[in-house]
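User: Predict the complex with pyridoxal-5'-phosphate.
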Amino acid sequence: MQVYADNAATTKLSATALKAMMPAFETYYGNPSSLHSAGQEAKELLEDARDRIAKCIGCEPREVYFTSGGSEADNMAILSAAAVGARKGKKHIISTAFEHHAVLHVLQKLEKEGYEVTYLDVREGHNITAEAVKNALREDTCLVTVMYANNEIGSVLPIAEIGAICKEAGVPFHTDAVQAAGHLHINVKAENIDLLSLSAHKFHGPKGIGVLYCRRGFPLTNLINGGAQERGKRAGTENLPAICGMAAALEEATAKLDTNAAKVAALRDKLIAGLSQIPHSALNGDPDNRLPGNVSFCFEGIEGESLLLLLDMKGVQASSGSACTSGSLDPSHVLLAIGRVHDVAHGSLRLSLSHENTEAEIDHILTVVPEVVSYLRGISPVWRDLQTGKRNYIL
Ligand SMILES: *Cc1c(COP(=O)(O)O)cnc(C)c1O
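Assistant: Here is the predicted structure with pyridoxal-5'-phosphate placed in the model:
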């Protein structure tokens, strides 16, 4: 049995999305900026996709900017808000310690340029409170950027409450909603969000395409200069097949959201209950406010990398944290941020499910993971020290 349980890294393209892409490859290959009919037909497809995406997140079509993905949208949102802040002499930003690198690394760059960033603590409940955001606000705060849901540990943040606080304070609010879009209901107006990033390949759309929603009137800074595409804010001929695929995927995910989320959450809960039986293990992430498909654990006395390799040999494809950090020896910044010590953070496992996973697959995972964990503990010198009392258990 082959079980794909790494949907937070990327998802399989849905049949609906693939079908929606084909006309843009085969028939409507014109450049949407061309004035002839081939161009104008392509332009119609482009604007139709924009309308449909806008409906899914509750904004106006002209507030939707197509980007190359979530990373670009995050960069553009944060750098735009930082530029607006600098013009007003405001250079303080509020974020969290467990953001995706597409946010964190932009913030680190801004810190080198003289901005000050408050990273909210996420140890308590593996989440933040809206009150913590409120308490961190200052006269010179130019941006609050906190993710909608965490990609490694699944915590879902109190976005609507934070949006209300930011609105009252008159501070721009960006959220990286890459893990939430298509999985949780999003309404940018109701939640008072000014800037929001999403990425198609996390909701069964194609890779290399995303959206930056930007509230009308908020001045965006170009990352890419050139032609007048995307109201002059993002140059480059539009990736029309991907845009059509993204619109179809988001519509499909939104239409089936409640059914899929209920199904996936039930599989998630079964998996969490089963894996919690493994001694000296701990669930990572907010147990109550949690993405429907996220299961994240730390197992004491093992190496996450060995665990992943052995699981792969037994047909279970999972991750130790985010795909972007694998290959580096440092433990995940997210697990460190929630307070896991280095040794424990190294023994992490993230299983991220989709509606395509089945009950039989969950049973397979529940057979294989405990076996592999015991095997690895059996050959681990750290586990021997824990067992003989030379070291103390942390979990
Ligand atoms: C995947 C991901 C990104 C990056 O999106 P890309 O489209 O791959 O650039 C950003 N933020 C979060 C939370 C993600 O999970």
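The first helix runs from residue 15 to 26.
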